Amino acid sequence: MITGITGQDGSYLAELLLDAGYRVVGMTRRTSTDVHERIRHLADRIEVCSGDLLDQSSMTAIVADIRPHEIYNLAAQSFVPASFSQPVLTGEFTALGVTRVLEAVRAVDPSIRFYQASSSEMFGKVQAVPQSEHTPFYPRSPYGVAKLYGHWITVNYRESYDLYAVSGILFNHESERRGKEFVTRKISDGVARIKLGLATELRLGNLDAQRDWGFAGDYVRAMWLMLQQPEPDDYVVSTGRTHHVRDFVRLAFESVGLDYERYVVVDPRFYRPAEVDLLIGDPAKAKRVLNWEPAVSFEALVERMVAADLDRLRP
Ligand code: NAP
Ligand code: G4F
Q1: Measured between alpha carbons, how far is 192 from 64 in angstroms, rounded to an integer?
Q2: Is the CB of 271 under 6 A from ligand 2?
Q3: Is the CB of 214 under 6 A from ligand 1?
Q4: What is the model's pLDDT at position 77?
Q5: Whole-angstrom distance between the N-terminal and C-terminal Cα of the chain?
Q6: Is 161 a catalytic residue?
Q7: Among 16, 197, 223, 270, which is 20 to 30 Å from 4 by CA?
Q8: Confidence bin at 82 (pLDDT 50/70/90)
Q9: Is 239 in the pocket of ligand 1 (CB under 6 A)?
Q10: Nearest C-alpha neighbor of 46 from the set 66, 73, 64, 76
Q11: How far apart are CA 12 and CA 177, in angstroms?
Q12: What would the 3-class secondary structure string for 135-151 be?
């Protein structure tokens, strides 16, 4: 069972599990319009059920009905700027939502294996470089604070009720399926539009922030591996390399033969009340225990995202 199956990671994870022979059930929330774009190609291979992280009775009923062996809790309000404008809702989804799923597991079948989508945003104002499973947390946004709650409630239920519950502390991972408001996709989409003559500029915020960016398809493999271990544990998943937003911008424009300085406008509207300046993860434990390594490089990621947006937008 995957919560958040309509999101970027949900769609890649569903593909991976189907390829491994799983029955896959995705939980989606009710909407008046169809928002299943990322899983449309899987429509005849997955089952979809309606529920909401805000609603305990729907969560418990779905888990009781499906009786999954594994639950991947990917659903969340995941956009950092929205967490500043909607902090209470972000706490309800992204923090308390985790407890609701865990309560459903506890009530229905404590042997269900549970994955929580934790985040490098929890490191925030980083207390060590690189960040590992032992680095203290210091979140810098309501989103980061909510994810920290989700992390600790997962650890707490593991220790209190002996659940197989794990927290994957994943660093930024991207793809052509990334939401268009996140910086990498905003850049690839903007570059494609400029190249095709559909736009003349790209307005961005802080170009000096640094992120450890990987490919989402690689990262869902780490989620699955975490639920296949003899004992539940928490892992940092990252590439171990960091780049400035400016590097992503420069490479993306270069990939279509353009100079970014002619098109990018820095717009303070996209600055955040508090910024996470530098993220770089230490993936040593994931490599040692899970035998996990990313396959797609930063450079290849930039290229494939721009190429995909060019293909999508080309008349
Ligand atoms: P995403 O594309 O924003 O997808 C979020 C999913 O959550 C969507 O399917 C969304 O459904 C669903 N959702 C939101 N609120 C819900 C609610 N109240 N009830 C049920 N479903 C709800 O996020 P992503 O990039 O795939 O990330 C997956 C998870 O990993 C998230 O928890 C995110 O915070 C975490 N994470 C992501 C990264 C990253 O770099 N991508 C890194 C670390 C952690 P709708 O389609 O209906 O909106
Ligand atoms: O792409 P972003 O919005 O991702 P952010 O804030 O790092 O969060 C993402 O990664 C987390 C893992 O660390 C996830 F947990 C979270 O759910 C999400 O997937 O911004 C990246 C950086 C920031 O420093 C931001 O200030 O890019 C900078 N930036 C510069 N200009 C911009 C822009 N970000 C956005 N979204 N839009 C801009 O115009």
Answers
A1: 46
A2: no
A3: no
A4: 97
A5: 38
A6: no
A7: 270
A8: very high
A9: no
A10: 66
A11: 9
A12: CCCCCCCHHHHHHHHHH
